[in-house]
Design brief:
130 residues; alpha/beta; four-stranded mixed β-sheet; three-stranded mixed β-sheet; 2 helices; globular; VOC family protein; VOC_core; Glyas_Bleomycin-R_OHBP_Dase
Length: 130
Amino acid sequence: MANELNHIIVHCRDRRASARFLSDLMGAEPPLDWGPFTQVTSSNRVGIDFADFMIAPEAINRSHLAFLVTDAEFDAIFCRIQERSIRYWADPMCAAEGRINHNYGGRGVYVLDPGHTISIEFITRPYGDP
């Protein structure tokens, strides 16, 4: 049997704000609430279920979500980042602010969700691509 990722749960400070932030950047369908989750669905049908902290906030590790996008999608996402004056970085350590990377001949950018508990990455080339 093939294994397909169906959904993940991402703990955050404000599930609705984090889900809206991501769906807005991606130009995706609005997030849907169900039970204790607010879900954004990726183009390959993986559910990203945002949940307010289910454990003590100090016990949460910052999450990381990475999306492989086309060059046109990257352009649109990056335009929305700039239009909204969202801080962005070229690296996961947030050391190169205001820059994008060009790893593997592509482009990549990192942003933080409104609660600063989720690092969101958009790349146009998978890591390790020749």
